[in-house]
Amino acid sequence: MILYIMRHGDAEPAQALSADAIRPLSDDGEEEVLRSTEWLATELKAADAGGLDLLICSPYVRARQTAAIIESKISVERQLQNNDVTPDGDPAVFADWLFTQLPQQGDPIKRVAVVSHMPFVSYLVAELDPASQPMLFQTAGIAELTLDCDKGRGRFQRMAGTEPDWK
């Protein structure tokens, strides 16, 4: 199974709004997410994947907007919001939930994306792959991991960002 962990795109400054959860994507953030989504769509096409089996996102506005952009360009079988993938979420709790829920989804799940925030995305990579240190994600950056649900572990493969030279 492949897991894509994505940080939302650039958001409006916090001081402009009264609560972090309602901060929307900036215009630049929308463009970043579009570029990242194009990269992801190309990767899925190269793997002969029809799209994502599951898209999990934070309930925060900027994460939901990021997920909506992904869904506008990539086929998504099922989307759900999860309160554990907020900036202050506990990656261990989410990882336990993920490894418990994925096998129960019926049809085999092959490709999953999680849209969340720093520092959660960084700590989630390290939680899933103990050989990886927490890493910085640029806005709209995507980490690709392979997951082994039987072992409850992942393996970091690569990081894609919004710069023109990603691999």
Contiguous low-pLDDT stretches (5 residues minimum) are none
Query: Helix segment count?
Result: 4
User: How many domains make up the coordinates?
Assistant: 1
Basic shape? globular
> In the CATH hierarchy, what is the architecture at level 2?
3-Layer(aba) Sandwich
Mean pLDDT: 92
**Helical amount:** 25-40%
Report the structural category: alpha/beta
CATH superfamily caption: Phosphoglycerate mutase-like
Q: Tell me about the biggest sheet? A: 6 strands, mixed
CATH topology: Rossmann fold
Cα radius of gyration in angstroms: 15 Å
**What is the number of strand segments?**
8
Write the element-wise H/E pattern from the N-terminal end onward: EHEEHEEHEHEE
Distance between the termini: 20 Å
Q: State the CATH class.
A: Alpha Beta
Oligomer: single chain
Order the strands across the largest sheet as they lie in space. Answer: 5-3-6-1-7-8
- Strand residue content: 15-25%
Write the SSE topology.
Elements lengths: L1 E6 L19 H20 L4 E2 L1 E4 L3 H13 L1 E2 L2 E3 L9 H11 L9 E6 L3 H9 L13 E7 L4 E8 L7
Parallel strand pairs: 1-6, 2-4, 3-5, 3-6
Antiparallel strand pairs: 1-7, 7-8
Helix pairs in contact: 1-2, 3-4
Keyword list:
single chain, 167 residues, alpha/beta, Rossmann fold, six-stranded mixed β-sheet
Task: Give an overview in words.
With 167 residues, the protein is an alpha/beta fold. It has a single domain (2-12, 19-160), classed as Phosphoglycerate mutase-like (Rossmann fold, 3-Layer(aba) Sandwich), CATH 3.40.50. It has helices at 27-46, 61-73, 91-101, 120-128; strands spanning 2-7, 51-52, 54-57, 75-76, 79-81, 111-116, 142-148, 153-160. The strands form 2 sheets. It has a 6-stranded mixed sheet. A two-stranded parallel ribbon has the order 2-4. A hairpin with a 4-residue loop joins strand 7 and strand 8 (153-160). Helix 1 packs across helix 2 and helix 3 (91-101) crosses helix 4. It is globular, with a radius of gyration of 15 Å. The two termini are 20 Å apart. GO terms for molecular function: protein histidine phosphatase activity. One of its GO terms (cellular component) is cytoplasm. It comes from Pseudidiomarina salinarum.
